[in-house]
Amino acid sequence: MAVIGPSSCRANGRHMPMGSMGPSVGHVSAHHNNNAILAAAQPMYSSLAIGSQDIQPDRPIGYGAFGVVWSVTDPRDGKRVALKKMPNVFQNLVSSKRVYREIKMLCFFKHENVLSALDILQPPHIDFFQEIYVITELMQSDLHKIIVSSQPLTSDHVKVFLYQILRGLKYLHSARILHRDVKPGNLLVNSNCLLKICDFGLARVTEPNVAKHMTQEVVTQYYRAPELLMGAKHYTSAIDIWSVGCIFAELLGRRILFQAQTPIQQLELITDLLGTPSNDDMRHACEGAKTHMQRRPYKPPSLAALYTLSSQATHEAVHLLCQMLVFNPDKRINCTNALAHPYLEEGRLRYHSCMCRCCHSVGGARRFAQDLEPVTTLTFDDSFEKDLSSVHQVKGTNSYFSLAIFK
Ligand SMILES: [Zn+2]
Questions:
Q1: Ligand 1 center to residue 345 CA distance, Å?
Q2: DSSP state, 281?
Q3: What digits encode the pLDDT tens for the residues 138-194?
Q4: In Å, how far are 312, 359, 382 from 175, measured between CA atoms?
Q5: CA 98–ligand 1 middle distance (angstroms)
Q6: What angle separates helix 155-174 from helix 238-253, to the nearest 10 degrees?
Q7: 17: CA distance to ligand 1 center in Å?
Q8: Which residues are involved in binding ATP (predicted)?
Q9: What is the spatial distance between Cα 8 and Cα 5, in angstroms, rounded to a whole number?
């Protein structure tokens, strides 16, 4: 296990060492592939600010569904950054629009707890444009790696992580963005426990028209909200809060809360804990799923089981968790109200005492920002998607090229 360097934070008079939060990025077997990505990038790509020949890919740090992430050195300032290669993005219109939307979002975000693009490497000519390289801040680990590791995870860690997840998500939701794949692996963490939400491959803008159908093929199954499992045609940002509830429980218990093999079994595990939902609580479900549920034997709720997750599952923790794990999305807590819960008070204080960039120390005293959990007044505008009708158009100078220029 690589230790990313000593770092600690003192808040509330208590000491919370965080130096061992680093991931095991040092064990890379594919080192010989380093030159391959460089060779692939060099002949065709140049950036406005960075010559790609100066970017020295060093080691792969992650393999997402839609690309490979490498750790590289930014020659402008010598800082380590992450380089994400998104290959074969122009195979068809659907995939090219999806990637374009993701990159446009990465360029839009301005929040400490949300990953954003630092730069986009662009090809000199549209004919060579097959893949896209995006540069983002480098984060050493993610919450999944930390949860499955042997590193200690104190209740101070849980609180500061949960605080940042909700803080970032509040910002995303204020921009009208649904993440739709909130899970531990998509929550990047660095050595001092700063957390950033990443991977916007499934994200989209909220759909205000409730009559419009939205795809249900979203969210990794373990973190999928019951309304999605029950075939809801329309859903809201409450699906992300459900995922956060599952992650909160996973942080407390250090195991996946609802780990089922199939979507049907997933729903079984959820109802084992929450009990059989009322008809009103299933109002967003499709008829088939409702009938299925009504035919099942009645189950009483067993929420007290949440106290057995760990000794860290205090009354306050379970009280907040129970407001996230609500079957009916209309009754589920939102980010703003969750952030106001007393359980997160210590996490907020710790974060703003020594981790944030919004507050400042002046003469030994901490001067706190006026708004500790800011939202954006700009909503993400997805109207550009309607005008994109061909792969060539998505590739065109009016899209990626202008994004890079605006960075
Ligand atoms: Zn602050």
A1: 13
A2: G
A3: 998 999 999 999 999 999 999 999 999 999 999 999 999 999 999 999 999 998 999
A4: 33, 23, 11
A5: 33
A6: 170
A7: 20
A8: 84
A9: 10
181 catalytic per annotation: yes
E strand or H helix that includes residue 70: strand 67-73
Where is 61: in which H helix or E strand?
strand 59-64
CB atoms within 10 A of CB 339: 20
Which one of the listed residues 181, 199, 240, 281 is annotated catalytic?
A: 181
- CA–CA separation, 189 and 353 (whole Å): 18
The answer to whether 84 is annotated as binding is: yes
Q: What would the pLDDT profile of 256-289 be if each residue is shown by its tens digit?
A: 999 999 999 999 999 999 999 999 999 999 999 9
Closest-CA residue to 347 (of 161, 117, 200, 72): 161
Cα dihedral angle (341, 344, 345, 346), rounded to 10 degrees?
A: 160
Q: Which domains does the chain have, with CATH numbers?
A: 40-139+389-404 (3.30.200.20), 142-367 (1.10.510.10)
Spell out where 240-363 has E strands: 360-362
| Residue at 134: amino acid letter | V
Percent of the chain at pLDDT above 90? 57
Give pTM, 2 decimals.
Answer: 0.84
DSSP at 349: H
